[in-house]
Amino acid sequence: MDHNTKFLLGICGIEVLIISIIIILYLRNTPNKYQKSAKPTNEVDDELEKELQNKSKQ
Fold first, then answer.
1. With a cut of 50, which residues of the chain have pLDDT below it?
2. What residue spans define the domains of the chain?
3. Which of 31, 30, 49, 29 shows the shortest CA–CA distance to 39?
4. d(CA 28, CA 8)
5. The model's pTM
6. For residues 46 and 40, is the Cβ–Cβ distance under 8 A?
7. Which of 18, 52, 23, 33 lies closest to 10 in space, CA to CA?
8. Residues 50, 58: Cα–Cα separation, whole Å
């Protein structure tokens, strides 16, 4: 193969690695966003949240 062809293939390989790393990191962090926005549906969760708010006010 020509030197330029090997060079371009190397650049493409590096780009694929970088993009895959970015996608993996994004997919690992997305569940955290949904957990923060979720509202507690359990009564125990509501009581714990009230206690935490009272402690933070004191």
1. none
2. 3-57
3. 49
4. 30
5. 0.50
6. yes
7. 18
8. 13
